[in-house]
Every structure is written in C-alpha cells, then in structure tokens.
Write a structure and sequence with these properties.
- It contains 6 helices and 5 strands; from the N terminus they run ααββαβαβαβα.
- It is of the alpha/beta class and about 230 residues long.
- A 5-stranded mixed beta sheet has the order 1-2-3-4-5, sandwiched between helices.
- The protein is rod-shaped, with a radius of gyration of 40 Å.
Amino acid sequence: MDLERPETRGDVGALEPDAAEQALLAKVTDALLVLANVEFGDYSTRLEVEEDSELAELFSGINDMVEALQSERQRSVEYQEDLEAKLEMIEEQRAAIRELSTPILEVWDGVLCLPVIGVIDTVRSSEMTSELLEAIATKRAQCAIIDITGIEVMDTSTAEHFIRMAKSARLLGSQCVLTGINPNIAQTIVHMGIELGGIVTYRNLRDALRQVVAQQQQARRNRRRRR
C-alpha cells in the first residue's frame, strides 16, 4: 500500500522561489509592454507601483519617463499645430499680396485691365500671366488692357514678358492692349530693337478704353444689321 509522502519544509522552500520568479517575470513583462506601447506612440499606460516591491523604484522611474514623454509629445503636437496655423496664415497673406500686386479689374463688359506697378521679375511675370489668363477664361473677356504707367524702366526681359503675355491672351481669343508707355521706355524699346509682336499700344488707359469700347459697340451694331 502506497502512502503519501508527507510534505517537508524542504519541499515548501523549493516551491516558493518558483512562484516568486513567476511573479517577477510577470511584472517585468508588464514593464516591457509599457515600453513597447511608448514605442508605438501610446503614452497612456502606467505601471502599478507596489511600495514594498523590489521593482518599485524601477517602475516609478518608468512611469515618470512615460509621463515626461507624453508631456513632450503634447508640446510637440501643439507646436506643430501652431506652426501649421502660422504657415497657413503666411500663405493667406501671400495670396492677398499677390492679389494686390496683380489687380485685374473688369472696367467694361468683356474688358479687363491689369495695372502693373513696380519691378517685374520672372516670378511676378509668371503670376501675372497666370492670373490674367484665368480671368480672361473665367470672364470670357474680349480685350485685356495692360497699363504700365507705374513702370519707370523696361529692359529686354520685361518687354519679352509682356509679349508672351499678349500672345497667350490671343490664344484665348482676347485682344491684348498695352498702355502707359513713357518716353524713357519708348526710347529703350526702340534702342534695343524690341519687337512688341503686334501688340496694340495707346498713350494712356483712357484712350485705350475709349477705343476698345467704341470697337465693341461698332461690332454689336454690325451684328444687329446682319440679323
């Protein structure tokens, strides 16, 4: 007959370390999970700190680190949002400046006017051309008057900008008129041998507008007679 062997003190001592090791392993696993969550951007998990535990100081340090990382992450997000808001505001201001520097006015039915003031460089000429062509297409303008009264000096590059602008406008079925050429610019154009490419010129905006409106009215009368 087999008899159960009574449990001895030595057996109890052998089991206790295994249980302690398992508990320690579970706590270490929890700590590793928290650190893994931090790596994936989750800062919400915290470790439970037991005051009498040998890992209390370590877990408290991990919690403090995660808390600091979460605060830093929040500041980074707020900074990014603030930066994006400022960049958006700057872009809006740039757009407003572009509109002010390239004011396209509808001075008559089907007649647009682009008063040009200041220095014309490659970037600004490209923006002016794009804005003008878009306005011509949107408003179905038959004529675009470019007034350069505000330009004191014109070089070859600037003249070529206006020539390309006029040719682009003609491709959309709109006549391009240049006004406000001062004596200095006229002499420069002749001296450099610049060809304006068939662009119609007028002394000032009033003369151009008067002539363009008269031409439109005459064209309308001719269409009515044909009917």
